[in-house]
Amino acid sequence: MIIAVDGPSGSGKSSTARGVATRLGLRYLDTGAMYRAVTWAVLDSGIDLGDATAVAEIARNLDLTIATDPSAPTFAANGTDVTLLIREPRISENVSKIATNLDVRADLVRRQQDLIAAAQPGGGIVVEGRDIATVVAPEAELKVLLTADPEARMARRQAELAEGAVTAAELRDQIVRRDADDSTVAQFQVASDGAVEIDSTFMTLEQVVEAICQLAKE
Ligand code: ADP
Ligand code: CDP
After folding, report:
1. Which of 2, 14, 18, 110 is most buried, most CB within 10 Å of its CB?
2. Is residue 52 domain-resident?
3. Which residue ranges have their beta carbon within 6 Å of ligand 1?
4. 186 in a domain, yes or no?
């Protein structure tokens, strides 16, 4: 079984997808973390982020090791554990630039499809991102488009960050600007055939997990 969860930043994809995978005994894949890992490797290499060919080469040669256990999803890039490093603001600020590189996308989509195939003998996988239902796994049995108002998404991010680590204006820029940057990729978050939209603005995390688990049983 494949469950696809797509949606914008702060809609609750990672936490709900992990919760659903844990409840249903499935594997879990955070595809956004893969784009973040490539961004980490590009920044680490010191090359110009605007050099599309060099960026694509970094992605192609990247040794990416991904644990799809929902209780401990980890990412290693070229032997370095980047699980925490890829959450740093410098990565969030630059990841959309890397994600608009079509060669990088093709490379990562292929890796994602391999991980999905590898999870099938174990029962299946919950995959979250922006283009899972449209590009990565259009064959998914359940496709969820998770949304929430920008204000709610910003408040969730704010609550996550250490007090004083970021101003409200910076946070707004990150959500609003990243929404705008991501909206230039045509395949993102469009309601694909058979996708169920869940607006989580006024739902708790547990309610969203429950709703998706119910849909998976239908
Ligand atoms: P995304 O992966 O879409 O960026 P996350 O899963 O990282 O979103 O969620 C962002 C934050 O919002 C997390 O701190 C998470 O615990 C919280 N959160 C997720 N879903 C809800 C919800 N339905 N109600 C309130 N907070 C939520
Ligand atoms: O957690 P958050 O929603 O803020 O971001 P993420 O899921 O970690 O994704 C980071 C970035 O990766 C997004 O802003 C997109 O630019 C990109 N991404 C993508 O291009 N395709 C995906 N399937 C997932 C993420």
Report:
1. 2
2. yes
3. 7, 9-16, 156, 160, 200, 203-205, 208
4. yes
